[in-house]
Write a structure and sequence with these properties.
alpha/beta
Length: about 290
């Protein structure tokens, strides 16, 4: 089996950070492994056991507890089910599965079946949002409602700008470990507001992981004809990967039941914006779930 990690030391260093992040999430987070047709999946569970289920799908090329922590204000009201995405850093199977077709949707449906959940609410930042769009394409009846946060799968930013602000500094950082290159990348991703802990983890992932290059494919209008669940789209105006205005414009053309909110932030939201997002999500779920 080919590993997504470039070295064993790199892998254990990233998993140490995963554990530290998990501790930060506080008491009451359980973890277990679930068998799926694509291999073992490591799942974090928290919130009241009798709460309505809420799946939170992690961002790509990062660790699950990091993007899960963005939504911690929802933990007390919902039964949170947060799987480590297969083929991404974390404890799930390391084999990548294609983000283009139905594989990721089938992976989520295996998890829903395991927990005996007919349909659930979903939140997905970035790559996780792209997974929700694959689910909406292939198994729309299993989504009660969804929240897409700066999602992959709708529109992409300028290739030139991404190359200039992300790819080149990334190549340089891999070669030199220069803090200024890391600062340039994380600054671009977050409008210079990324937490030190996150910056540190991102640095290790840039260095030690063969990054997932393939985002979930751009969704076509025809793919979503059967998807009518209420959808909340939250985007960052200064998102280098998925620019807010382009994403909203595309979503309004292809997602039947969508409401969109744009924030003055990058791909990684600032702490202030996260507070606003959580409030928006809370109201949306209360109304639609």
């Amino acid at each position: 089996m080919s590993s997504i990690y470039r070295s064993e030391e790199g892998k254990s260093s990233i998993l140490e950070d995963y554990e530290a992040y998990l501790e930060n999430l506080g008491e009451g987070v359980d973890r277990e492994y679930v068998e799926t047709r694509f291999g073992q999946t490591h799942v974090l569970l928290t919130g009241p056991e009798n709460g309505k289920p809420l799946f939170i799908l992690q961002g790509g090329n990062c660790v699950n507890p990091m993007t899960l922590s963005w939504f911690s204000s929802l933990f007390k009201d919902y039964r949170i089910i947060a799987p480590d995405t297969i083929g991404h850093p974390g404890y799930s199977e390391e084999t990548r599965i294609s983000a283009r077709f139905d594989s990721l949707a089938l992976w989520v449906s295996d998890l829903l079946d395991h927990y005996k959940i007919e349909k659930s609410a979903f939140i997905g930042p970035s790559f996780g949002g792209g997974i929700i769009l694959r689910l909406a394409t292939y198994i729309p009846e299993r989504i009660a409602c969804s929240v897409l946060v700066s999602p992959a799968g709708l529109a992409v930013g300028s290739k030139f700008k991404t190359a200039q602000d992300i790819v080149l500094p990334l190549v340089k950082y891999r070669m030199t470990s220069s803090p200024s290159s890391l600062q340039k990348i994380t600054g671009t991703m977050s409008c210079n507001c990324m937490k030190e802990m996150d910056k540190n983890i991102m640095g290790k992932i840039f260095k030690y992981v063969s990054m997932e290059q393939d985002n979930p494919k751009l969704t076509e209008r025809e793919e979503l004809v059967n998807y009518t669940s209420p959808t909340l789209l939250l985007v960052g105006e200064k998102d280098v990967f998925f620019p807010g205005d382009k994403v909203i414009e595309r979503a309004q053309k292809i997602i039947p039941n969508v409401q969109a909110v744009k924030y003055d932030t990058g791909h990684f939201p600032s702490q202030d914006v996260l507070i606003q997002m959580n409030e928006e999500i809370r109201q949306f779920l209360q109304k639609n779930y």
